[in-house]
Specification:
Largest sheet: 7 strands, mixed
Strand content: 25-35%
CATH topology: Jelly Rolls
Radius of gyration: 18 Å
Number of domains: 1
Distance between the termini: 35 Å
Order of helices and strands: EHHHEEEEHHEEEEEEEEH
Number of helices: 6
Strand order of the largest sheet: 1-7-4-9-2-12-13
CATH architecture: Sandwich
Bound molecules: 2-oxoglutaric acid
Helix content: 25-40%
Structural class: alpha+beta
CATH class: Mainly Beta
Amino acid sequence: MKTNHNGYWGPFGLLNELETKLIIDQFGNFSDRLLPWLKGRHTVNPLIAEIACHPIIVEQLKAILGDDVLLSGCQIIKQAPQKNLSWHVDLEHAQWEGLSVWVALENVIPGKSMSLIARSQNFGATPEDFKLQGKDLSSPGKVLDLAKELDPEATLVELHITDGQFFIFDGKLWHATQNPSDSPRYALLLQYCRPDQKVKAVLDINYPQIRFHSFKPECLLISGSDQYGVNRVITRKQVGTPVRKVKAALWYAPRTIAYKALRKVRRRFLRWS
Ligand SMILES: O=C(O)CCC(=O)C(=O)O
């Protein structure tokens, strides 16, 4: 993977207001609860697969990953008013090498919604590692001070991105999101890799922990071909077929539902995490 010094690329223009609304509507058209796994919407939802294959995104990805590209996972993310997601890396990209694309859909505020530490993809450690060591990462200034100890040229970037635009980042880049407004904020996360990377299906992300399903997830071929055969690869034509939707809802999704129910019981009665 040809990464650049900063660990991110963009923002680039992609969607108009109508298109961003159509993506948000997919929440209602196919509930998250019926997905084969948390980040498996691309297997059942043709519109999301279409956006993931958008030529403007693919052109940028090919310049970084080469001609052969898979979509390993995706998620429509609703961030509640006044909520934030503290500093982290995309934990799956600690397991396999990949890129994330974040598409701003609604109520993204330029300079206030997405924060990055440029060059942090090479730190070899995550913000969670430092939190576990007792470091204070409670403000962007403190995160930057720590980052500068690791790389004096690291910088804090409050990304100037607006609804309809996307940016690409190395999965190991430190980032955080905030919604300082009184309305929900929506974004689409798309995760890509080369076909030689072995992808797993995310079951649960609870920073700094990530759990995976035991089944092999379906990855969508975005460009080129798969010469490796380490993943289950599908093409655009296979996305959202009735059989795939029924299997997602009746065979795969119940595993996530059962896991969540069990987790609730453990937390309530056994105080497990
Ligand atoms: O959109 C968000 O609030 C979170 C996106 C993100 O940082 C992630 O999924 O890793």
